[in-house]
What does this fold into?
Amino acid sequence: MKKIEAIIRKSRFDDVKEALLTADIEWFSYYDVRGVGKMQQERIYRGIAYDTSTIERVLLSIVVRDINVEKTVEAIQEQAYTGETGDGRIFIYPVDDAVRIRTGERGDISLYDVK
It folds into this structure.
């Protein structure tokens, strides 16, 4: 099992969500997050200067079976891509075990129903 964390633009979230559902990734968590990137600039709107160095993004947290890692990464990468600086990052971590609380099932069977 692997945990995939992806930091993406807020504007691309709906497209990424649909791509994950199409790829049969039915369960994931997401969070609104802020970060600091390379872009350090100030914008002026109606005479007021705004610091745009803090970037709003969405953090996706997904645990998948090993066989689903590549299709999950591809779905995120294809839909999050704009070609501009700030498209985001994808991180992949190993997961030792998982337990479904309701049934006590352990391992990758605990992630999804048996098909």
Summary: Residues 5 and 30 are 9 Å apart (CA to CA).
